[in-house]
Amino acid sequence: MPSEGLPARRITQVLHDGFADPTAGPRRRLDQAALVDGWLTELWEGAGGPASGAALAAIGSLGRRDLGPGSDLDLVLLLEPEALDASQSERLASALWYPIWDSGTSLDHAVRSPEECEEVAREDLRAAISLLDLRPVAGDAELVEGAARRVRAQWRRQARRRVGDLVELATDRSHRYGSLAHSTEPNLKSDRGGLRDVTVIRALAESWLADHDHEVVDAAARTLGDARDALQAVTGSSGTRLGRPDQDAVAALTGHATADDHHAVLAESARAVSWELHRTVRAAEAAIAPGGISTRGAGTDRRPALSRLPHGVLVQSAEVSVDPTSRDLLRDMAAVRHAAATGLPLADATLDRLATGGSAPLLPAQRDVLVDALAGDHLVDTYEALDVKGVFARWIPGWAEIRNRPQRSAVHRFTVDRHLVETVREAQRFLARVNRPDLLLVAALLHDLGKRPGQRDHAAEGAPLAQTAARHLGFTMADARTIGLLVREHLTLIGLATGRDLADPATLRDLLHAVDHDADTLEILRALTEADAIAAGPAAWSTWRADLVDHLTDMARDALTGTTPAPRVALTPQRSVQEAVLAAVQRSDSAQVIYPAPTESEPISQICVGAPDGSGVFAAMARVLVRMHLDVHSAVVVTMDGVAVNTWWVAAASSDLPHPSVLRSALDRELAHRDRADARVLELPPPPPPRTTEDAPVVTLLPGASREATVVQVNARNRPSLLADVAEVITVHHLQLRSAHVMTLGQRAVDVLYLTDQHARPLDPPSVGRIVAALMDTAAT
What we know:
The structure is a single chain. The chain is of the alpha+beta class. It has five domains: 10-157, Beta Polymerase, domain 2 (2-Layer Sandwich); 160-288, Four Helix Bundle (Hemerythrin (Met), subunit A) (Up-down Bundle); 307-357 and 376-388, no CATH class; 396-572, Hypothetical protein af1432 (Orthogonal Bundle), CATH 1.10.3210; 577-684 and 694-780, no CATH class. 51% of the residues lie in helices and 12% in strands. It has 31 helices and 15 strands. The protein has a four-stranded mixed sheet with strand order 3-2-1-4, sandwiched between helices. A hairpin with a 2-residue loop joins strand 14 and strand 15. The longest helix has 30 residues, at 259-288. The chain is globular and about 100 Å long.
C-alpha cells in the first residue's frame, strides 16, 4: 500500500493539480505523468510487487505521458504465467486496483500475459491501437518491453489488412461526431481532426506503411491537448466537449483574447490533423495496392503510368502534379482544376509549390480556369488541401481574416471560409439557369468576406472587400461592381420575401432597386440566396421560404420583362377557405377553424381561424397556438365584414395538428376571458437571460416599407410566447395589425409588423415612439 506520506486520495490531487498554467503545455503533462508514475511505483512496492516476472504497465494517455486533469488511468498488470500462481496474482491485482478506486480515480484495468497481449492485439483493432502505447511503470521493465515488441510485430504483420479497418473506424467516428474545425461546440477528442485522429495517424506510422509530418501533427496535438486540459480544469470533469458556456474561460486559460480567436487556432490544428490523416491513409493505401512500395519485386513493369495533360499537368500514381519544366502560365491553376473535377488529390510537391508561389493578380485566362475549378464536383476536398497550405489566402485578398472564423449563429454549421466553399458547391446546381455562371460562383465564394470581428453589417462592409478581391482574381471593373452588388444584397431577397408584405408595392420596389433593375442580376441573386441558405444549414431554408422567394422573384422578373403576371402558387391565404371561415363565423357568431388541404409533404401547415373582430382577438389566437405548442412561422391578418379572418402557418405536419374542434373550443374559452389579465398569462418557464449583447432585442422602424401602414421589425431571441406577447402589446396600445410576417432562424425570431391606428392609417410619431418602446420591453422580458 502507499506510504502514509502519500495517501490514496493523493492520486486525484496529482491528476488535477498544476493545470492552471497555460504556457506549461506538454512539459506539464510529462511532469504529471512522472508524478503518477511515482505514486504507482510506491503503490507497487507497498503491494509487494515482485522485481521479475510481473510488471505494472500503462497504456492510453498515461502510456503516452499525455495526461489531462480529467484523464482516467489505463493500466495493465503483466504476468509471466509461471511467475505467480492464481491466488498470488489475484492478491496483487486487488492490492493495486482497490487503492486507485478508493482514491476516486477512474480506472480501466486488465491482467494479461505477454502472449495474451499479442492475442488481443490480433483480435481487437481498438485494443491493438491502445496497446501500441504500452509502457513500463513498475516491476519487470523487460517483461513490458517484450510484450510491446510482440504487439508491434503483430500490428505490422496485420497492417496491410487493417488499413481499411482503420479508415472505417475514423470514418464512422466522423459521421457520429462531425468536424472539430467547423463545429460551434467541438469535441476535442472524438470529432474529425481531434485527438483520436492523432492516435490513428501515429498507429499508421507504427505499421511502417506510411509516415506523416511529425512536426505538424505534434504541434496540433499540443494545441488540442492544451485545450482539453483547460476545459477539464474549468469544468472539473473529464468531458471533452467544448460547450459555449465554457469557451470564454478556456480561451483565457490557454492565453487567447477571445473564444473566437481560440476557436480559429483549434480549427487550424484540426484541419492540419484531418489533412495529415488523409495523406497518411492515402500513402498506406498506395503502399498495399498492386505495384505499391510494399509489393515485392522491382523493374520497369512496376513503374506507375504517367499521363500528360494540357498546360503541363501530370497524373501519376493517382495524383495530380505538374511538370516543373513547363512555363505555361495556366499550369498550376489547371492542376487545381483537374483535381477539383476528378477528385484526384494534388501531390504534396505541387501543393508546396502553390503555397510558395506569388500572390500577383490573376490574368483573365487564369481566372477562367479558376472559375472552372469552382464548378468541379470535388471542390470541397481540393479546397481543404489548398487551404491547409494557405493557398487561398494568397489568391484572395481578405481570405486570411475569415479563415477558420467561427459563426455564433445557431443556423450555421461551418466556419466562415468553409461556408463560402459550401455555398459555391450549392451554387453549382444553378449554373444552367443564369447568364453569368462565373459571377454566381465568385459571388458565392466572396459573399461573407465581411464577417470579421467587430463588423455589424457584414453584407454592406463585405461588398467593397469582394469587389477588390474580384479585381485581384482578374475580373473587369464592371463585373467586379456586379459581384460587389451581389455581396451587398445577398440577404435582401430572402429578407424581403419572408419579412415584408408581398402585396405591398414598396416590397417589390426595394428588390428592383437592390438588383439595379437588371434581370440578369436578379437571377444570380435568386440562385445565390438559395445556395447560401442551404449551405448554412437545414434551419435556414425550406419549401416555405422557397415559395416566398420564388413569388417575389417572379414579381420582379415580370416587372423587369414587362410581361403579364401568370397565375402562380405563393404562400398566401386561400380565398375560398377565408370565405368559408367568414360564413361559418357569421352563422354561429363564434370562433371557427378550418385546415386547408395540405399541398406538400413539408411540416409547414396552414390554419385559417376566424372570430368576430374586436380588441384582443389576434392576441387571443396567438396565445391559443402557444398553448397548443404550435410554432408560428407566418401570419396574415385581415378583417372581412366585421370578422377577423387570420391565416397562420405553423411548424407542424397536418397529421400532428389537433382536431379543429379542439382548437375552436380553446379559442372560444380564450376569447370569453380575454379581458381578464390573469387569463392572459401563459404558463411558460422564463427565457434565459441574454449571454451577450448580440442576444439583446432590437426593434427597428422601417420607413418607406409601406404607404398604408407603419412597419416595425422586432428582432429578438425566440421564445414560445414571443408572438403572443407582441400581439398583447398591440392590443393594449389600441392598434390594428394589418399583417404579421414571422421568420425564425435558429434562436432568433424576426417579426415584421404592419401597424395602423383605429382608423386604418399609419401611426403618428408619438404613437410610433410608444409602440417601439413597449415592444422593446416585451421582447427583452
